[in-house]
């Protein structure tokens, strides 16, 4: 009889942990598969006269003690954040909404700041000519905006977020901006996932690494198309090799036959990487 309480406790411990869920809804019409994810918006100051939009969503359900862990998604640049995707989209952009849904279902908040909308061709300031050379990154609008985002996360502006469990990812210009987190915001992120990009100040085929990379660089996963001609894989490999030589935990997935794109495997790869850190 005394064994029954112990058996009950063991059974409860062995039971699957209830996952969060999301408000993302899948549908199909005339052979086109779609996924629509609801999201919220907040405005953060730019340090000038304007504000910048931050799109975000929290998992459904009760947050864990300390708040939801969060993944920051940095907009690809010329493309908006695709919370609603479908199977006709190019450059793998349909996998963006799938990534959001997978993270939300697994209990991760998604925080998606947007780039400077005033530019004709949109990109993150980390890619601007002369940044870190003739212009300190700390003088850029992005630095002020992202600092405001981090302050807002700590103040509960985006809901209950665990700021000790932050991760960052993005593709193309958003991937370069993900690298920027290691360079200009040290200690904030547990892990990074750089997609179709390289080091913070590289740009396309132009890529020269500084003499010293951050000694406390977070563990980093690189996702890249092997046939990418816009951001050649060799530029990613240069960054990857340097980090590996430093003893930083790194991994890469180079997808054959894929060009400049979000990889089909990205939703699961990103989730697995953040879960392991």
TrEMBL record:
Keywords carried by this UniProt record: Hydrolase, Signal
Keyword Cytoplasm tagged: no
GO molecular function, one term: hydrolase activity
Signal peptide feature range: 1-20
Domain of life: Bacteria
Entry-linked PANTHER family: FERULOYL ESTERASE, UNNAMED PRODUCT-RELATED
Protein name in the entry: Plasmid partitioning protein
Species of provenance: Stagnimonas aquatica
């Amino acid at each position: 009889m005394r064994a029954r309480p112990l058996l009950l406790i063991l059974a409860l411990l062995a039971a699957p942990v209830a996952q969060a869920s999301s408000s993302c809804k899948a549908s199909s019409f005339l052979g086109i598969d779609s996924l629509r994810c609801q999201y919220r918006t907040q405005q953060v100051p730019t340090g000038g006269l304007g504000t910048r939009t931050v799109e975000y969503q929290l998992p459904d359900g009760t947050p864990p003690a300390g708040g939801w862990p969060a993944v920051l998604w940095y907009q690809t640049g010329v493309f908006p954040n695709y919370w609603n995707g479908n199977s006709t989209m190019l450059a793998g952009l349909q996998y963006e909404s799938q990534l959001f849904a997978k993270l939300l279902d697994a209990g991760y908040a998604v925080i998606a700041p947007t780039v400077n909308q005033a530019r004709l061709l949109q990109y993150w300031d980390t890619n601007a000519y002369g940044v870190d050379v003739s212009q300190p990154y700390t003088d850029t609008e992005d630095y002020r905006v992202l600092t405001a985002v981090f302050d807002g996360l700590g103040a509960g502006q985006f809901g209950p977020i665990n700021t000790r469990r932050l991760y960052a990812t993005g593709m193309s210009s958003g991937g370069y901006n993900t690298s920027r987190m290691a360079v200009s915001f040290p200690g904030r992120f547990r892990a990074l996932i750089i997609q179709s990009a390289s080091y913070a100040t590289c740009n396309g085929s132009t890529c020269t690494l500084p003499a010293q990379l951050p000694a406390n660089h977070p563990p980093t996963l690189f996702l890249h198309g092997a046939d990418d001609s816009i951001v050649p894989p060799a530029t990613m490999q240069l960054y990857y090799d340097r980090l590996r030589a430093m003893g930083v935990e790194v991994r890469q997935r180079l997808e054959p036959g894929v060009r400049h794109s979000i990889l089909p495997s990205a939703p699961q790869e990103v989730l697995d990487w953040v879960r392991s850190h």
